[in-house]
Every structure is written in structure tokens, then in C-alpha cells.
């Protein structure tokens, strides 16, 4: 189901390519637990293939370096923090941690890569979805300790924690980092027209043979897109949804998007998409920002202003749409404008 949805995201981008005269090179892989895809326009395969391969190699390196529950640099850091020890990390890791703390502060703690232990309690730190609810006592203990990325202490490359229950998980962060890395790698290799997709997080470079890249925003309850949008050079779009990774128990859906305040999965939102204009680290911001805005629920417009984001679409638990005016003006709604639609300033 998930793979089909990701393929649908790029169906619009690929459809016109079949009729186009200029070449469109495509390479896919499975990384970060999802399907990733690199589309390169306007170059012969002999030029496009090595560039796309370099991107996929970098994705694989990031995935192996920062995997939360398999042996990796990140899991070694988590082991040290649990044992109360400090650890010297790489400059890359130190930079990621500093950025994560900054984004967590900006999002008022709703984006928190320090809740790895909570993610594990709910069973989402696994290749298999959980079959049962977590132990209530364990959840209460986590809430009492309330570990978070703010507990992390950074002294150049030396990392320690004030809270032994702190565990890091970059699952809500790393795909955006990878988008920005991919953009830089492609440009260095002379690729200026490409579309990069990592599980529904997308960044556009240039155009598709003179036309803007058009992508779909997945409908959270139906196959296919809810709407489509054209992306300008350097823009990125990220979506968080309760359909991406979840399990059901006693007729209730429990998704992987956890509210650190309650230690519970979010139930008031089906999906939230953020479109970020061209800027440094646009990919990272599109990935990061969709999480706290998803968790914020009805308060998302205020938090979006705090984060200086103007293009947001939310689908609430009842399927009603809220969209910012700036994004509404750019969307083409599939099947026409939905009746339950609220356009906000």
C-alpha cells in the first residue's frame, strides 16, 4: 500500500515524460525504510546515471550511519547516553544534533528527536509494526522522566546527557537532511534539473524540460493524490500522515506520530503538508516542520507563523481541509475543490 502511494506521487511527473522529447532518467532504491527516487531531466543516461547513483550511495550511508535500532553511529551514542557516559562524535553528527536542538526549540518542543525511548515503547522502532499497546506503567515512567533533545549537552564534539532515558531517533529528520545533500551532490555533478523523492518528501531542482515539476499530495484515506502542485526551483514539500505507519487495536488507529506532551499517538489529524520556498536547508525544514504542525492540530496556524511558514495544508480527523491562502492559490484539487475546505490567512 505504502509503495503504491509513493509511486502515485510521481505518476504525474512521469506521465508527461513518456511523451517528451528530452530525456528523463529515473533511478529508484529502498532506503530509510521507504522507496526513494531520483528523476533527472535533460541529460543523457550516460551523464545522469552516475549522478543518481552518487545520490543513492549517500542516502545509504546516511541510513547506515544514523539508524536508530540497528548498529550505527547513532545507536552507539544512545548506548553511551543510557550508560551515563559521554561520547566523542563526528563533526557531521555534532552538526545534526545542534540543528535538531535548534528546531526543537523553535517548534516549542513538538519536534523532538530525543523521544526514541517512547518510539520504542510504542513498537515503532522495528521493521515490523506492533501488535499490541505499550505497557501503561512504562508509559507513565517515560512521562515522569520526560527525556528530550533539550537534555543533550554538546561541547564541540563531546556529547552527554542530563537524562539517562534520553534516546535519539532521527526518523523525523533525516529524510530532509538527505534531500539537501542530494541537491548539493547533483549540482556539483552538473545536474540542475531533477526531482528527488524520499517517501513523499520531495525537493525540486530546476524544471522538467522547461516545465515546472508537478507532484501530488497524497490523499490520507483514498488512493491517489488529494491535490497537485507545481514546484519551483529549490522548493521542497514534506508530508506527515497517520496512514504512513500505523497499527490498529480494538478498532482504533495508532500512528507513529507521537505527541511528546502526552506520550500518545496523535489522533486529531490525518495528514499535514508543508511547502517550503527555496532557501538553505529547504529539504530539512520541509521534513522537520510537518511533524510539529501535525502534532499541534488546530493550533497549527500559530505555530506555522512562529516557524515562518506560509504554505500549509492540513486534513483533520474528520477529513476536513484547512489550507493557508498562499498554498491554496497554488493547488489543483483532484476532482474539484473539496466542499469541506477552510482557507486561512
From TrEMBL:
Cofactors, names only: Mg(2+); Mn(2+)
Top-rank taxon, per record: Bacteria
Coiled-coil segments on the chain, per record: none
Any one GO cellular component localisation term in the record: plasma membrane
Record field: catalytic activity: L-threonyl-[protein] + FAD = FMN-L-threonyl-[protein] + AMP + H(+)
Residues that, per the record, bind Mg(2+): 172, 287
Top enzyme category: transferase
Protein name from the UniProt record: FAD:protein FMN transferase
Amino acid at each position: 500500500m505504502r509503495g503504491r502511494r509513493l509511486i502515485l506521487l510521481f505518476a504525474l511527473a512521469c506521465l508527461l515524460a513518456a511523451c517528451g522529447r528530452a530525456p528523463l532518467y529515473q533511478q529508484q532504491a529502498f532506503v530509510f525504510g521507504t522507496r526513494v527516487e531520483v528523476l533527472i531531466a535533460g541529460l543523457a543516461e550516460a551523464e545522469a546515471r552516475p549522478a543518481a547513483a552518487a545520490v543513492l550511495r549517500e542516502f545509504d550511508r546516511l541510513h547506515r550511519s544514523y539508524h536508530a535500532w540497528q548498529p550505527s553511529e547513532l545507536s552507539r551514542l544512545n548506548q553511551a547516553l543510557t550508560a551515563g557516559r559521554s561520547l566523542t562524535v563526528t563533526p557531521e553528527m555534532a552538526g545534526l544534533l545542534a540543528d535538531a536542538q535548534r528546531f526543537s526549540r523553535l517548534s516549542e518542543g513538538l519536534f523532538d528527536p530525543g523521544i526514541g525511548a517512547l518510539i520504542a515503547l510504542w513498537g515503532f522502532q522495528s521493521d515490523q509494526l506492533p501488535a499490541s499497546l505499550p505497557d501503561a506503567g512504562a508509559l507513565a515512567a517515560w512521562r515522569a522522566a520526560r527525556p528530550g533533545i533539550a537534555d543533550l549537552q554538546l561541547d564541540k564534539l563531546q556529547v552527554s546527557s542530563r537524562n539517562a532515558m534520553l534516546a535519539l531517533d532521527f526518523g523525523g529528520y533525516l529524510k530532509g537532511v538527505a534531500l539537501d545533500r542530494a541537491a548539493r551532490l547533483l549540482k556539483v555533478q552538473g545536474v540542475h534539473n531533477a526531482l528527488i523523492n524520499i517517501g513523499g518528501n520531495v525537493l525540486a531542482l530546476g524544471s522538467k524540460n522547461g516545465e515546472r515539476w508537478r507532484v501530488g499530495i497524497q490523499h490520507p484515506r483514498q488512493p491517489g493524490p488529494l491535490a497537485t502542485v507545481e514546484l519551483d526551483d529549490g522548493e521542497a514539500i514534506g508530508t506527515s500522515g497517520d496512514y504512513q505507519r500505523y497499527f490498529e487495536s480494538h478498532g482504533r488507529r495508532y500512528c507513529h506520530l507521537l505527541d511528546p506532551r502526552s506520550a500518545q499517538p496523535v489522533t486529531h489529524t490525518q495528514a499535514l503538508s508543508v511547502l517550503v520556498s527555496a532557501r538553505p536547508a529547504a529539504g530539512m525544514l520541509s521534513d522537520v516542520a510537518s511533524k510539529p504542525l501535525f502534532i499541534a492540530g488546530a493550533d497549527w496556524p500559530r505555530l506555522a507563523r512562529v516557524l515562518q511558514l506560509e504554505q500549509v495544508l492540513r486534513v483533520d480527523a474528520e477529513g476536513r481541509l484547512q489550507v493557508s491562502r498562499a498554498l491554496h492559490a497554488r493547488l489543483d484539487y483532484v476532482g474539484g475543490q473539496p466542499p469541506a475546505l477552510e482557507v486561512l490567512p
